[in-house]
């Protein structure tokens, strides 16, 4: 059994009697403090997820403002990092099974839930979700840099685009290509090439905020989602990256210099483009800068 002392739970349930029953059951949990926030509508539940951090969500699939399987899909978009247990009626068990197949950790049939069953479901849901996230992180992480790999980053970008549309918020997509990696590999060996890549990753981490999302999607290609940024901050962002690269080169004093060509585009939900087009626009700008650098050297 888990060693959890406190669990923050969001309960989205419109039936006052059922909600009261869940509150009473949690009082029977020994040595565990349950902090429960109760909402009656899906919209209010989603607002709660934006306002507070929770450990788990219990949601009824029959709410005043959302009915059936769509309820899970809507709330899942807002809490992909949280385990979800769905609540169904006696005649909706097939819906519960379908919900589990689509990402919920478990389902409970109202009227058949005891305190022990509820506690076990909560514990198992949290543990199962942690395990899945651990396994998932291995499949979406670049082994060399520990950043998101291509699969992981594209998944995060897709999610960010959806979020930007819902919240009417802009963000910047940065495409960065490490200059001269092939030359370092050919002349100094692949170990030194790997060092160049990890140096680039470190500089990008130092340049961007913790809330921004960084990925390595190719051998020498990095991409960044800069959240809460707009066109007005592009030049400032470029300058900060250039300054970080200069500081790195001065400090390391290696036989080669770290250099990156970058392209930055803004995603505007009022003028949306799909993910592939957004990446292409940033890539094209990056390539243009790389070509201009080559011309200036000749």
UniProtKB/TrEMBL annotation:
One of its GO terms (cellular component) is plasma membrane. The keyword Phosphoprotein applies. Residues 8-125 form the Response regulatory domain. The modification 4-aspartylphosphate is found at residue 60. Pfam families: GGDEF (PF00990), Response_reg (PF00072). Residues 169-298 form the GGDEF domain. Keywords: Phosphoprotein. GO terms for biological process: cell adhesion involved in single-species biofilm formation; negative regulation of bacterial-type flagellum-dependent cell motility; phosphorelay signal transduction system. PROSITE patterns: GGDEF, RESPONSE_REGULATORY. GO terms for molecular function: diguanylate cyclase activity. May play the central regulatory role in sporulation. It may be an element of the effector pathway responsible for the activation of sporulation genes in response to nutritional stress. Spo0A may act in concert with spo0H (a sigma factor) to control the expression of some genes that are critical to the sporulation process. NCBIfam families: GGDEF. This is Stage 0 sporulation protein A homolog.
């Amino acid at each position: 059994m888990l060693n959890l002392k406190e669990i923050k739970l969001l309960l989205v349930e419109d039936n006052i009697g059922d909600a009261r029953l869940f509150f009473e059951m949690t009082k029977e949990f020994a040595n565990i403090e349950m902090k429960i926030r109760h909402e009656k509508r899906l919209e209010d539940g989603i607002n709660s997820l934006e306002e507070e951090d929770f450990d788990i969500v219990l949601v009824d699939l029959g709410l005043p403002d959302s009915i059936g399987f769509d309820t899970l899909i809507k709330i899942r978009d807002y809490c992909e990092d949280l385990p979800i247990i769905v609540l169904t009626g006696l005649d909706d068990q097939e819906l519960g099974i379908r919900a589990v197949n689509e990402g919920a950790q478990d389902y409970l049939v109202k009227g058949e839930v005891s305190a022990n069953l509820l506690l076990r479901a909560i514990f198992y849901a949290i543990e199962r979700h942690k395990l899945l996230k651990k396994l998932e992180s291995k499949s979406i992480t670049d082994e060399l840099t520990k950043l998101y790999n291509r699969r992981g980053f594209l998944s995060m970008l897709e999610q960010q685009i959806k979020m930007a549309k819902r919240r009417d918020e802009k963000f910047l997509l940065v495409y960065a290509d490490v200059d001269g990696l092939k030359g370092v590999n050919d002349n100094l060996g692949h170990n030194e090439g790997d060092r160049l890549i990890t140096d680039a990753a470190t500089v990008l981490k130092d340049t961007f905020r913790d809330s921004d999302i960084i990925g390595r999607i190719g051998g020498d290609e990095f991409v960044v989602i800069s959240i809460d940024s707009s066109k007005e901050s592009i030049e400032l962002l470029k300058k900060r990256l250039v300054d970080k690269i200069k500081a790195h080169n001065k400090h390391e004093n290696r036989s080669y210099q770290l250099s990156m060509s970058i392209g930055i585009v803004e995603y505007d939900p009022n003028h949306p483009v799909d993910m592939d087009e957004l990446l292409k626009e940033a890539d094209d700008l990056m390539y243009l800068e790389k070509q201009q650098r080559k011309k200036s050297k000749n």
